[in-house]
Amino acid sequence: MSPVSRGFHGRHRARGVDPGRVPPGQYVTTDFPVLSAGPTPRTPLESWTFSIRQAGETAKSWSWQQIRELPSEAVTADIHCVTKWTKLDTSWQAVSLDVLLGQVQHQARYVRAFCDGGYTANLPLADVTGGRAWLAYGYDGAPLQPEHGGPARLLVPHLYFWKSAKWVRGLELLAADEPGFWERYGYHNYGDPWREQRYSGD
Ligand SMILES: Nc1nc2c(c(=O)[nH]1)N[C@H]1C(S)=C(S)[C@@H](COP(=O)(O)O)O[C@H]1N2
Ligand SMILES: [Mo]
């Protein structure tokens, strides 16, 4: 019986890292790996919009400039990819989803993010409100690079990073949960890294 959990041992243990910040089974990296299920889309900012959809209709839509005029926050967060890398203290410039969702009347309990390229990710409304999720367009003091989801991506750092949809173009408001891209392929529907919810059944 060891009082130390398995995640604190092993070849990936990083020096000087508070193990309490590293979820089980994860290792800390200083790189920023790129994980994309397809090619990097490149939508010109002039035609880019972010939309909130409900019952097949657009309830609210913002142009790039309108998004940039909304209040934004500097967010520092630890991110955890299901492929087992964790990156600590990433810094973002981002608009809280509270600001965006607050401009639409609705009673939805779930959202599904949609993206250029067709990727989707589903999330309970409770996980994208209350200051826990953002639309991020800046990373490390610079515009978010296309490989990492620029011009803008979701940032939902308390869940595995596949929920942080890159090239996001909007949120669909839903009464009932509908699985997204990876969730349909056997990833966990919720994806809490602290409970190691990697695959459906975990
Ligand atoms: N649109 C889109 N968003 C996506 C993905 C993707 O393939 N397409 N991959 C997800 C996965 S599995 C991870 S781990 C992160 C990776 O983000 P990064 O490439 O910036 O590290 O983006 C997530 N968001
Ligand atoms: Mo991932």
Please tag this protein with its features.
binds the ligand Nc1nc2c(c(=O)[nH]1)N[C@H]1C(S)=C(S)[C@@H](COP(=O)(O)O)O[C@H]1N2; 202 residues; mainly beta; Sulfite Oxidase, Chain A, domain 2; binds molybdenum atom; disordered N terminus
Describe the structure.
With 202 residues, this protein is mainly beta. Mean pLDDT is 94; it is low at 1-11. It is built from three helices and eleven strands. Strand 2 and strand 3 (57-63) form a beta hairpin. The chain has a single domain (23-32, 48-195), classed as Sulfite Oxidase, Chain A, domain 2 (Alpha-Beta Complex), CATH 3.90.420. Strands 1, 4, 5, 8, 9 and 10 form a six-stranded mixed beta sheet that branches. Helices cover 7% and strands 32% of the residues. The ligand Nc1nc2c(c(=O)[nH]1)N[C@H]1C(S)=C(S)[C@@H](COP(=O)(O)O)O[C@H]1N2 is lined by residues 32-37, 81, 115, 117, 119, 148-149, 161-162, 164-167.
